[in-house]
Amino acid sequence: MHDKTLTQLAAALQKSELSSRELTAHYLQRIEKADATLNSFISVTTEQALTQADAADQARARGKTNLLNGIPLALKDIFCTQGIKTSCGSKMLDNFVAPYNATVVEKLNEAGGITLGKTNMDEFAMGSSNENSHYGPVKNPWDLSAVPGGSSGGSAAAVAAGLTPAAFGTDTGGSIRQPASFCGITGLKPTYGRVSRYGIIAYASSLDQAGPMARTAEDCAHLLNVIAGHDARDSTSVARVVPDYAEALNAPLSGLKIGLPVEYFGDGLDPDVEKAVREAVKVYESLGASVREVSLPHTHYAIPAYYVIAPAEASSNLSRYDGVRFGHRCENPEDLIDLYKRSRDEGFGNEVKRRILIGTHTLSEGFFDAYYKKAQQVRRLIRQDFLNAFKDVDVLMGPASPTTAFELGAKKDPVSMYLQDIYTIAVNLAGIPGISVPAGFVGNRPVGLQILGTHFAEAQLLNVAHQFQQATDWHQKRPAFAEETA
Amino acid sequence: MALEETHVRRAAHLARLAISDDQASRFVDDLSQILDMVDQLQRIDTDGVAPLAHPLDATQRLRADEVTETNQRDTFQRCAPVVEDGLYLVPRVVE
């Protein structure tokens, strides 16, 4: 059952070959069996999931035909879920039960989706390995000594291990695409503003975007169909028609113009990852696409610009955790300042503190122009690089990450961890969509091919990814761990 | 721009983060590394480039000035550490 894609499971439900209750119970059982090893969930919502599954079965009997009706799903623990703990991977929110649902969650509930639970993540989505979680690291199902990537590491590991057919993540600098790449699944970061951020715990508001993580591009298309769209409760969500993302999946790729950014194939790229990515590009050539080199000249300034802009926004967003209205509060505060300071010192982990301090420092008097204003100017140049490239080509392709999944504990200093995100971070600064699809292995660790499109080109990206998955079987490979726990 | 411990202590105070002496010296090292990396930005000429705050250059939508939310104080205070009579309790501010 857990070998099937979401699309196949939906068809089986439709034909009454199985019930949502059977399907949901199956995945809950798998989580119980395997997750002591993986640690991919922070909360498992067994009772609620079974209740939702029964309701979905009843709704189907009454004629509800939504594709997602009765399908089990997992949510990164950054989405507010009413009545369910929403920790964001932090001690600060260990006791926080959200009083309302994120718009994404509302839409999934309306569509009849089942919430299996909330997945592990780097604290406040700050990290690239899932090692910054208050709830401990997640293990990569392909190799238990490796990280699953981050920050949506729990979502990626759970999908790869067959503990859920699909999951949702968020991506501020690569947090959907990089873990999708490390865990051998398909993960889409939509255009900034395509999916409502309402009820998603904020990290860097001008960069954050939610998206689907699943086995295939086809699955991602069905999931994006449900969550995309304008929301009056998110003033940055875009009022623009949502196409049927599943409709264009089968369009032929003859005449597709692919650009390979020279900066994405330079120093620091593992030669075996490069080989896998170039092989994938050859598959596209055999499908009728043409390939040329392009340049994104400001690529190397993306990480420096990001580490000003994201911490600046984070320092402001995270000022709401004050020990007064919700979240962790210290014992016996002497006065109000002591209450704030100690609650925050005790509630936040080191990476979160680093980013709050960097953000506060770079925004402070005397430093603002040199850092924040400069980074925003560079941000425009980075976006312009992409817009220029898309005048000549339809999509860009390259690796999602310079290496495959690294060992747990391998990146000791913060900057070496930050440099992992070289191929994903500029995409968030520019606001364009990107998808990572499985494209081979180095040893037993998966390689992700990243495909980028211009603003609102999700349908094209999904089409381009789907056609690759019709021609290759990398997305059908399963880790031995998934079978051992069958 | 070299970072000194006074900068870290000032940022920690502005951000309302308690910080021990040990932590302060460790954060000076970590943050210095990060800012050294960030300083690469100074190599680019950005004269005349307008700062980009939002990737789609969107403008803020306006709506009618009408009350659209209902009062849900009880619901929202259920996740508060300490409340009494509908008020959030904090240490005494005025003696």
UniProtKB/TrEMBL annotation, chain A:
Its EC number is 6.3.5.7. One of its GO terms (biological process) is translation. SUPFAM superfamilies: Amidase signature (AS) enzymes. One of its GO terms (molecular function) is transferase activity. Residues 22-462 form the Amidase domain. Keywords: ATP-binding, Ligase, Nucleotide-binding, Protein biosynthesis, Transferase. GO terms for cellular component: glutamyl-tRNA(Gln) amidotransferase complex. It comes from the Bacteria. The keyword Protein biosynthesis applies. The active site is at K76 (charge relay system), S151 (charge relay system), S175 (acyl-ester intermediate). Pfam families: Amidase. It catalyses: L-glutamyl-tRNA(Gln) + L-glutamine + ATP + H2O = L-glutaminyl-tRNA(Gln) + L-glutamate + ADP + phosphate + H(+). Belongs to the amidase family. GatA subfamily. Heterotrimer of A, B and C subunits. Allows the formation of correctly charged Gln-tRNA(Gln) through the transamidation of misacylated Glu-tRNA(Gln) in organisms which lack glutaminyl-tRNA synthetase. The reaction takes place in the presence of glutamine and ATP through an activated gamma-phospho-Glu-tRNA(Gln). This is Glutamyl-tRNA(Gln) amidotransferase subunit A. It comes from Vreelandella salicampi. The gene is gatA.
From TrEMBL, chain B:
It catalyses: L-aspartyl-tRNA(Asn) + L-glutamine + ATP + H2O = L-asparaginyl-tRNA(Asn) + L-glutamate + ADP + phosphate + 2 H(+); L-glutamyl-tRNA(Gln) + L-glutamine + ATP + H2O = L-glutaminyl-tRNA(Gln) + L-glutamate + ADP + phosphate + H(+). SUPFAM superfamilies: Glu-tRNAGln amidotransferase C subunit. It is an enzyme of class 6 (ligase). Signal peptide: none annotated. GO terms for molecular function: ATP binding; glutaminyl-tRNA synthase (glutamine-hydrolyzing) activity; transferase activity. It comes from the Bacteria. The keyword Disulfide bond does not apply. Pfam families: GatC (PF02686). Keywords: ATP-binding, Ligase, Nucleotide-binding, Protein biosynthesis, Transferase. The keyword 4Fe-4S does not apply. Its EC number is 6.3.5.-. GO terms for biological process: glutaminyl-tRNAGln biosynthesis via transamidation; regulation of translational fidelity; translation. InterPro entries: Asp/Glu-ADT_sf_sub_c, GatC. Belongs to the GatC family. Allows the formation of correctly charged Asn-tRNA(Asn) or Gln-tRNA(Gln) through the transamidation of misacylated Asp-tRNA(Asn) or Glu-tRNA(Gln) in organisms which lack either or both of asparaginyl-tRNA or glutaminyl-tRNA synthetases. The reaction takes place in the presence of glutamine and ATP through an activated phospho-Asp-tRNA(Asn) or phospho-Glu-tRNA(Gln). Heterotrimer of A, B and C subunits. This is Aspartyl/glutamyl-tRNA(Asn/Gln) amidotransferase subunit C. It comes from Vreelandella salicampi.
